[in-house]
Every structure is written in C-alpha cells, then in structure tokens.
Write a structure and sequence with these properties.
Elements: E1 7-13, H1 19-25, H2 30-35, E2 38-40, E3 55-61, E4 64-66, H3 67-79, E5 80-86, H4 88-92, H5 108-119, E6 139-144, E7 154-156, H6 163-174
The protein binds iron/sulfur cluster.
Iron/sulfur cluster is lined by residues 16-17, 19-20, 61-62, 87-89, 94-95, 159-160.
Length: 189
C-alpha cells in the first residue's frame, strides 16, 4: 500500500455482537502506533455513518441476516480495495446462524419467528404477534456468511479474534507482506 499517505480503514458490524470490534480495541497501546499509519473512515469506532472516500481496507464483523446487512456489505465491497471478514460470524455466520437450523416446515423463516416470538417455552408474548413494523429490515431466509454475498479477500479467524492477530494482520497488509496465517492461529477461541 502507498506509503506517502495514511491508509484508510473502514469497519462495520453486521449480524455480530460487537465482540470483534472490542477485539480491535484489544490492540491496546499498539493502536497509537497504528494511528500514525492509518486513519479510520466509516466505522463505529468514530461513529462515522458514511464513507467519505475510497478505503484501502474494509473490516466486516458479522454475517448477513437481513437486507440492510446485504446492502451495507455490498457498499463496503464497492468502496474498499481489500475486504476483510473479521471473526467467525463474518466467516461462517457464527452464533446468529444457529437460526438456520430451525426449520420444521418448508417456510423456515416463519418457523424461526414462531419459535422466537410465539411458541418457545421461554417466550411470554402478551400480544401473541410477531414484530412486523415497516421500519424493521427484512429478514433473509437464513444467515449468510459474507463470502456468500460478496467477494472476500481475507478472513481473520476467531471468536473473537485476538488483538494480536488483528494487529499483526493489519501491519502485514500495510507492509504488503501478508502471507497467510500459521496453523496455530486458525482456531475459534
Ligand atoms: S465472531 Fe464472536 S466476537 Fe465476533 S461478532 Fe461473532 S460472536 Fe461476536
């Protein structure tokens, strides 16, 4: 990547728990050195809601569970040279994808909503209705990993990935020296 300017990084959380963004902060004091080389564009870290320009690296936490996630991910693909799936939810759907297993009929989304809002033994729903406000993003039929929606250039494993692996990967990308992960780094915890 160019060395005559700071690299631009954007980040977003789709269907995730923000744990991967907490892991970015786990770089701790190394963030100070990193900030000498990068600036953050659209990101929950600075509360910028829109891209202000093209970015060198986009980092995506979480997979896609609704149409808004899909649009956001496609926007990241359009605006970022290198698109990184950060953590297991982005890579394979993760915990939100547990709903993919709820399918009692040929309408699995209805099955999932019924179980969540109506029929679960843990549900107490006095209106006995499923939320259906027009402002709610439309749910997809299942939760999709990012790579099934757009092309992903790099996946950083972990739930959440460690601050170490995030830092080392970003530095290697900035230096143009990323060569993949060691086998010991390919784990979930
Ligand atoms: S991979 Fe783990 S930490 Fe990251 S968003 Fe998913 S559940 Fe949260």
């Amino acid at each position: 990547m160019s060395t005559d300017r700071k690299a631009r990084i954007a980040t977003v959380s789709l269907a995730g728990c923000f744990g991967c963004h907490m892991a970015i902060l786990d770089m701790d004091e190394r963030l100070i050195d990193l900030m000498a080389r990068v600036e953050f564009d659209r990101s929950p870290l600075n509360d910028l809601k829109r891209f202000t320009g093209r970015c060198d690296i986009g980092i995506v936490e979480g997979g896609c569970c609704n149409e808004e996630n899909v649009h956001t991910l496609q926007e990241f693909r359009r605006n970022c040279d290198v698109l990184v799936a950060l953590g297991q939810c982005a890579i394979m759907g993760g915990l939100p994808a547990m709903r993919n297993a709820i399918m009692h009929s040929d309408d699995p989304l209805r099955d999932c909503l019924d179980e969540a809002y109506l029929s679960s033994p843990y549900t107490r729903n006095l209106t006995n209705t499923v939320p259906n406000d027009p402002v709610l993003p439309l749910l997809l039929d299942r939760v999709y990993p990012c790579s099934e929606v757009v092309e992903i250039d790099l996946q950083i494993p972990g739930c959440a990935p460690s601050g170490d692996i995030i830092h080392d990967t970003l530095i290697a990308l900035l230096d143009g020296k990323f060569r993949g992960f060691e086998r010991t780094e390919l784990r979930f915890d």
